[in-house]
């Protein structure tokens, strides 16, 4: 198989000159020289190596994606698998490769940015949950890489942040419950050191205020966003004599835990208590058609990928900040109060 050195020898030029012509580098070469190089390429049947072209252009032709979740969650966790699908659907048609960096390869001792500074990727998408004190995020913010963060990083100056509208997740659910007569509404949410947790909590509080309902700290349960924590928080709620008439579980897993606790206590939804959640795990609701906030996670991945490609091509300058709208679907787990 002919090499670039064979082409250079045949055309009577340097290897560097051949590389410049193949990669369309704007250097002062005479047209006769360029024609001679192309003629040698054709005669020898030389096929330029893609990796070599990428190196000449100082491009890796690769997009990296990092999920700040255990590897085991990437395909079993519906939101993250949908985000990955959305990213992949765009990258697949771009001619670029997708490099998935497992979280196990990224730690305080093995920074993510250092790996990519070696030219392994042209840009990176980072999917949360995002902590404001995460050193990996700080390192990427300080790098020269085009970065799209799926989440919200308050200190971002160069980094672009794209996410679903988490404020509206909290606001739409609680505003609806208030509008159908509920005056005491419990909130099950993830930790507020995660950007999504804080924003959904702020939406909950704003909806209460806009509907002239008091904020009651005893109705707020900010915990790890797991089935078990949603279950335990709901048991606490149901054990109160003055229990709320409705629960908003702001993550899908906490919603699964909530319905489990309600059923375990022999209660019915919505006859005994109304419930809204984020519809991330529809199969977990069995026969129920829940009233739920519908998050467009696959679209989130698609929009993140489109935004990253525009940054890499230089068509836009960072930061890009965008929130993807969510919608409320009315189901059978809520009822109006007279």
Please tell me about this protein's structure:
It contains 13 helices and 12 strands. It is of the alpha/beta class and 338 residues long. The protein folds into 3 domains: 53 residues, Orthogonal Bundle (434 Repressor (Amino-terminal Domain)), CATH 1.10.260; 132 residues, Response regulator (Rossmann fold); 130 residues, Response regulator (Rossmann fold, 3-Layer(aba) Sandwich), CATH 3.40.50.2300. The chain has a 6-stranded parallel beta sheet with strand order 2-1-3-4-5-11, with helices on one face. It has a 6-stranded mixed beta sheet with strand order 7-6-8-9-10-12, sandwiched between helices. Helix 8 links the parallel strand 3 and strand 4. The termini are far apart.
Low-confidence blocks of residues: none
Helix content: 40-55%
Structural class: alpha/beta
CATH topology of the largest domain: Rossmann fold
**What order do the SSEs take from the amino end to the carboxyl end, as H and E?**
HHHHEHHEHEHEEHEHEHEHEEHEE
Q: Report the biggest beta sheet as strand number plus sense, adding barrel if it closes.
A: 6 strands, parallel
H/I helix tally: 13
The domain count comes to: 3
Report the CATH superfamily of the largest domain.
Answer: Response regulator
Write the layout of secondary structure elements.
Layout: H1 4-11, H2 15-22, H3 31-44, H4 50-56, E1 62-67, H5 73-76, H6 78-91, E2 97-101, H7 112-117, E3 123-127, H8 135-142, E4 147-150, E5 160-164, H9 166-179, E6 185-189, H10 195-210, E7 220-222, H11 227-238, E8 246-249, H12 252-264, E9 274-278, E10 291-294, H13 297-312, E11 321-324, E12 327-329
């Amino acid at each position: 198989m002919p090499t670039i050195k064979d082409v250079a020898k045949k055309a009577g030029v340097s290897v560097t000159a051949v590389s410049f012509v193949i990669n369309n580098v704007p250097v002062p070469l005479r047209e006769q020289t360029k024609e001679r190089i192309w003629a040698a390429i054709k005669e020898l049947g030389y096929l330029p190596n893609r990796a070599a072209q990428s190196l000449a252009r100082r491009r890796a032709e690769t997009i990296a994606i990092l999920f700040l979740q255990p590897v085991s969650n990437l395909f079993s966790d519906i939101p993250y698998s949908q985000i990955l699908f959305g990213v992949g659907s765009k990258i697949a048609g771009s001619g670029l490769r997708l490099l998935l960096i497992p979280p196990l390869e990224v730690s305080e001792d093995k920074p993510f940015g250092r790996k990519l500074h070696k030219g392994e990727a042209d840009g990176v998408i980072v999917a949360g949950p995002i902590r404001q004190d995460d050193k990996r995020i700080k390192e990427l913010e300080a790098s020269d890489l085009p970065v799209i963060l799926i989440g919200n990083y308050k200190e971002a100056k160069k980094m672009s942040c794209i996410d679903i509208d988490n404020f509206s997740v909290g606001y739409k659910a609680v505003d609806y419950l208030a509008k159908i007569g509920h005056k005491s509404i419990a909130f099950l949410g993830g930790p507020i050191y995660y950007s999504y947790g804080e924003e959904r909590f702020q939406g909950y509080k704003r909806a209460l205020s806009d509907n002239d309902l008091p904020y009651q700290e005893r109705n707020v349960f900010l915990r790890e966003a797991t089935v078990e924590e949603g279950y335990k928080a709901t048991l606490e709620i149901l054990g109160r004599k003055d229990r709320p008439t409705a629960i908003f579980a702001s993550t899908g897993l906490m919603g699964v835990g909530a319905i489990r606790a309600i059923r375990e206590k022999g209660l019915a939804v919505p006859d005994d208590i109304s419930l809204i959640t984020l519809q991330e795990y529809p199969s977990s609701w069995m026969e129920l058609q829940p009233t739920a906030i519908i998050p467009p996670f696959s679209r989130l991945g698609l929009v993140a990928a489109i935004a990253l490609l525009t940054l890499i091509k230089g068509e836009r300058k960072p930061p890009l900040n965008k929130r993807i709208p969510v919608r409320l679907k009315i189901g059978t787990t809520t009822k109006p109060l007279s």
